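Tutorial sheet, problem 5. The two components below are modelled jointly, 962 residues in total.
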Amino acid sequence: MDEFQEILQDFLIESFELIEQLDQDLVELESSPEDLDLLNRIFRVAHTVKGASSFLNFDVLTHLTHHMEDVLNKARHGELLLDANIMDVVLESIDLMKSLLHTIRDTSKDEGIEVETCVIRLTAIANGDSPADVAVPEAAAPVVDEAVVEEDDLDYANMSDDDVEAEIQRLLEERQASDKAKREAKIAAGEDVPQMPDADAPAEEAKAEEPASEEPSAATPPPPPPKAAPTPVAKEKVEKKAKEAPVATTVEQTIRVDVKRLDHLMNLIGELVLGKNRLIKINDDVEERYEGEEFLEELNQVVSIVSLVTTDLQIAVMKTRMLPIGKVFNKFPRMIRDLSRELGKKIELEISGEETELDKSIVEEIGDPLVHIIRNSCDHGVESIERRVEAGKPETGIIGLKAYNEGNHIVIQITDDGAGMDPDRLKMIAIDKGVISEKEADLMGDKEAFGLIFRPGFSTAAAVTNVSGRGVGMDVVKTNIEKLNGIIDIESELEKGTVMKLKIPLTLAIIQALLVGVQEEYYAIPLASVLETVRINKDEIYTVENRSVMRLRDEVLSLVHIADIFEVDRIFDSSEHAYVVVLGLAETKIGLIVDTLVGQEEIVIKSMGEYLHGMEGIAGATIRGDGGVTLIVDVAALMHMAKTVKSSASSEAGSSAGGAGTKTQPSDYKVMIIDDSKTDRKIMTTSLKSLGITLIEATDGVEALNILKSGEHYFDALLIDIEMPRMDGYTLASEIKKYNKYKNLPLIAVTSRTGKADRMRGVESGMVEYITKPYSPDYLQNVVKRNIKFSFSEESVS
Amino acid sequence: MSEKLQDIINKQQDQINPGEENMDDIVQLVGFIIGEEEFSVPILSIQEIIKPIEWTRVPQTPEYVLGVFNLRGTVIPLIDLRLKFGLKSENMTDNTRFMVMKNATETAGFVIDRLTEAIRLKKHEIGPAPETAMQEKTMIEGVGKQNDKILTILKVDKLLERDF
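Model answer (structure tokens):
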């Protein structure tokens, strides 16, 4: 039974591979019915499937393919001209064959599918055009796995029924023996050789020799020795076939590998990339610390080799996962053909760029959306023949399917020369169906209106047909493309046609990203969406209708602060400059204000699990060189969020000058007093009391730092004692200065240490003033006033 | 001699059998403290328990979702059970642990105040969740009675379920 299963597996894999090419060939055949190469190829598929299935006792499948073969054979010999009607039947039979194969794959049986009607029609075609002898096809069945490509079935026509029976028996036995031998040889060689039943069946040899001696011929591609065929004629043909064989086998030097293994490999590479990033970071640290040491050079070399090899390895593994997009495109000629007949339109499909390669996972995901888009183009895009003639267009509508690379993306472009879309009509329908409100419609531009077709429940079709009208398909397109981080771009012109572009990243796992910082947090932005980065002065930011904008060369760019998007508390932000990352997606552009630009890094996208799946604005997470987690920005969602997030860039500009918004009264100023001595704190509070400013007290550096970090208060200045337990004033000052946002926060040392060295240390750690105890209250007041830019006179307070 | 042997075998049988019989009836739990109360979860739902490490905040999440952290290359959400249970957040101490729990589909880390012990409870010592706890929404699997203590057993599936 196991052996049977194994044969079955081989059979199925081979059959599905053959069928993939079949559809395209058939459609091509319709336009050039005389093409003998094509005919032969198609015939061969039917024949191979028939042969193998009869061997495996799939009677229904054999029955069907047998009659298919019959018709095709006629066509091949020029006895039958394949017109559209005959093609319909042939295509139908191929569909049946496919579903039979699927049933076999799922249940190991070929039951439950009705083929008789199709068989009758096939027979009718076969008989209708030529008074063929039924004996020919009947006898053809047993010629199971021989090289029959060029073989003439008529050779068997002369045999008696008994002879035929005997011949069948003999061939089957041979076949079984050879299969068995081959399998053993294969196992011995430990190789995964694609099996081609009608190309390598060295039956005689297998019978005569030990399986082990089979190994070389089974493991290496050269053609097997021709087998002794039942009739001299056949033998001749087989030899001919043997000459052809090398061509066929050298073309496909492939090994089938389970995708899971490749996925696993890809995951490992991902880990390796993370390790590499970490190594580079450590190398930088070491370089800084041991500058000039000899071993550094060696370390440098090793690190660069490792990083080079890792990158190459990553590319190599990525390539193993790449498939030509032609695999997906192949099924469309057939689909277009069927649709055009169903809809009574004339439509031609032009495919280009089918050799463009894409990651396997993407190739799998892209099929469905394309089906829906093309169906849509056929149904709604291309007009009926009459309308086309009226509009002065050629009868035949053309749908173009094109794939090409653009940077790190692949673009799939679907064009039609149909009626185009009318944005106003789309809006009307959307309002009717309750997809949008009238007010929303008024605000919509043309592009946004085209985007309506992707809304669930939206359909322009008056009635639900076989092809479309349920309002589901395009929603599927959007969901799938979004899943791939892709972009959809629609351009349409009335009466001219529609161009739809799907822009999809080449691979999903590893990307280049720009790392940006805001306060203490870091975010990674996919580099593919970054157009440029600019450093601006805060006063270059204008507010128009409550939105922040800036002038970028001769355009106006709307701005949004990353802190507003990601709810980052902006504790302090006193720098006069800001960095703007200009993001581009489809036709939209936006400027994202960030505090710092960290740099470019290769990142591995990790999912955050179901629990945090689909957080708005976050595409995933990555692990950085230091082992920390950095979130990846979802640019599309960010742009969407930017529309609703209220701008605070203007208020921020104000706050950055003073620290915390505008000061309307003296108590808006806040100063923290940090001293371990209660008396000293008391002296300071009393001295400053008359100013009316708010004072917060802390007993040591640690406490002060915690108050600062908590973000509850916005301080305008700190008064710091130097001698303190837990954390002294110098350490505190340098800790505070580590934070970007406190860079301009005035730190005033209040101390009894008067030595020059102490003052120097104070300056080094970032203190701006140095007050020595004892001091007069007036002096302290003046220093504080100067540093917080106090703008109220004392009179106004009292 | 053979009698002696038989004796020994019998004894061994006795030793094995009661164990076997009880294995099905015994629930192994890990107890931990959050706030004032002791909770527990089945030991098999715990992947590991680690000391606190750095985490990254994730925006647009409820307060009790502290963020995500890196557990040997996997990004895992971190949930503060104090906040989740409506208690006030407190600074982490030396006793604070991240308890990484998993079910069939999801893995997440939970911040707990401190671990207590591994607990073996017999099935009959576990009562149902109190009536007052809302049946659909309750996070309580049952209540275990042990000596004089009362132990709340939490539903791991519920803890790992996203509710925002």
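Marking note: Confidence is low (pLDDT under 50) at residues 129-155, 190-249, 649-661, 794-798 of chain A. Full credit if you identified this.
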